[in-house]
Amino acid sequence: MMLMLPSLALVLLCLLQAGAEVPIQPDFSTEQFTGTWHLVAAASNCSVFLKMKDRMKSSIISVSFTPEGNLAMNLVWPLQDKCQHFELLLQQGGQAGHYMGTSVQEQRELRVMETDYGHYAIMHEVQHEQQEPRIALQLFTREQDASPQLLQKFKELILTMGLKLDMLVILPKSGECHEGGGWHSQ
């Protein structure tokens, strides 16, 4: 279990990335985007993600924005016997819908490519390091389900972002962790 936590953290880092000339939701509204989302599908070229994708479950993401327009995300990932929490703060990257984070080892970009605010959001992330950029595409939904049409749209978009369908995981529902962060069973 202890070995799984660092690996899960790496998976999270691989999932939280964005890209160069990727579109951003026109007239992005932070107010409408704020709230609870579920990560229901993801695709990435990150080697850690690819090794762990078959063991992952849907996670809960609480999104808020600082007065300066920076993106704050609280993520809850279900593990074998507990809920793992991660907090991220990314700075607005010039316009609403584009966010950046920089550390000593990497630069990360996150873009809200498309959203209808009430049902789904498609996020594109890139993590720039010394090696090849790690790219991720994520499908967030307000409920834990995604329609077959939305999943098909997401699959088609994966191919246009330089990713392959074998890099995709549709995450199974998880009733183990709830927004408050506690553990419960269905």
From TrEMBL:
<dbReference type="GO" id="GO:0036094">
    <property type="term" value="F:small molecule binding"/>
</dbReference>
<dbReference type="InterPro" id="IPR002345">
    <property type="entry name" value="Lipocalin"/>
</dbReference>
<protein>
    <submittedName>
        <fullName>LCN15 protein</fullName>
    </submittedName>
</protein>
<comment type="similarity">
    <text>Belongs to the calycin superfamily. Lipocalin family.</text>
</comment>
<feature type="domain" description="Lipocalin/cytosolic fatty-acid binding">
    <location>
        <begin position="34"/>
        <end position="174"/>
    </location>
</feature>
<keyword id="KW-0732">Signal</keyword>
<feature type="signal peptide">
    <location>
        <begin position="1"/>
        <end position="20"/>
    </location>
</feature>
<dbReference type="InterPro" id="IPR022272">
    <property type="entry name" value="Lipocalin_CS"/>
</dbReference>
<dbReference type="InterPro" id="IPR012674">
    <property type="entry name" value="Calycin"/>
</dbReference>
<dbReference type="Pfam" id="PF00061">
    <property type="entry name" value="Lipocalin"/>
</dbReference>
<dbReference type="InterPro" id="IPR000566">
    <property type="entry name" value="Lipocln_cytosolic_FA-bd_dom"/>
</dbReference>
